[in-house]
Design brief:
By secondary structure, the protein is of the alpha/beta class. Helices cover 39% and strands 17% of the residues. It has eleven helices and 13 strands. The strands form five sheets. The chain has a four-stranded parallel beta sheet with strand order 3-4-6-8. The chain has a three-stranded parallel beta sheet with strand order 5-7-9.
């Protein structure tokens, strides 16, 4: 008989709880309300045979008077002075999630809602909190080059404004940008930059023993930023596969394909 997979409930700070004891220990009223509204709370309870508690929860309505207090009583946890703040946090998070769903139905972003910036000030707030990954969902965002160690991921292909008169060495800045379109001024800066200069590293792949005859793969950073991470990884896998086959070849312009190559035909 196949084992049933029991999913955990996420509380604050990404803590996952798998038992009633852990739920009470890490109880977050805001998170419990969220799981109550989407129905996962009752499912989680029934998966753990806490049917009496599940029935008590099911008896509540979403517009129930003093819903938060009643949920706290059901789980036998204190309803303290921080409740107002938690309720406000839950309401704001739900509103932000609905706003995000207007731009994407990709569920991988839903769990990252706390790290989504819809406006420039929200981006700054996340940087103040030293967020390592920030999801951009909006029209236009200015990327601070002075803040290193940050990965920016565009959700709806927003415009990333780069205030620089020279092509940026993103590796040196320890900044990663994906799924965005650079502003027109910065695109012009990059277009004027020679491929061999900063911002356009080139990987040279030797083909067989003839190292003078090479295949050039240009890892253009500006192109990387235009595509979502999944598409970039897919393209890189394709490139890696081609690279392996190319390195098996014995080829030169003068000799053509030599007999010990699998591509040689009589």
């Amino acid at each position: 008989m196949a084992k049933k997979i029991r999913f955990p409930l996420e509380m604050d700070n990404g803590v996952e709880v798998r038992s009633m004891e852990e739920l009470r220990e890490h109880f977050s009223l805001a998170k419990v309300l969220e799981h109550f509204e989407n129905g996962t709370l009752v499912t989680w309870l029934r998966d753990r045979y806490a049917n009496d508690i599940a029935e008590a929860v099911e008896a509540l309505e979403q517009n129930e008077p003093e819903l938060a207090r009643k949920l706290s009583e059901i789980f036998d946890v204190p309803y303290d002075e921080n409740t107002e703040e938690e309720l406000k946090k839950a309401e704001e998070r739900a509103e932000r999630l609905e706003r995000l769903k207007e731009f994407t139905d990709d569920e991988q972003f839903f769990d990252k809602i706390d790290y989504v910036a819809f406006e420039q000030d929200e981006l700054y707030d996340l940087l103040d909190e030293d967020a390592e990954t920030i999801y951009l969902c909006g029209d236009r965002f200015s990327i601070p080059l002075s803040k290193s160690g940050v990965r920016y991921i565009g959700i709806n292909n927003p415009t990333a404004v780069i205030n620089s008169k020279a092509a940026v060495d993103w590796d040196d800045k320890k900044i990663s940008i994906e799924g965005v379109t650079f502003d027109e001024k910065y695109q012009e800066v990059v277009e004027r930059t020679n491929d061999t200069e900063v911002g356009y590293p080139t990987e040279t792949v030797s083909i067989g023993e003839y190292t003078d005859d090479t295949y050039l793969y240009k890892n253009r950073k500006i192109l990387d930023s235009l595509f979502p991470l999944a598409e970039r990884e897919k393209a890189k896998k394709m490139y890696d596969g081609v690279k392996i086959e190319l390195e098996k070849l014995n080829y030169s312009i003068d000799m053509g394909l030599v007999p010990n190559s699998k591509w040689f035909k009589n």
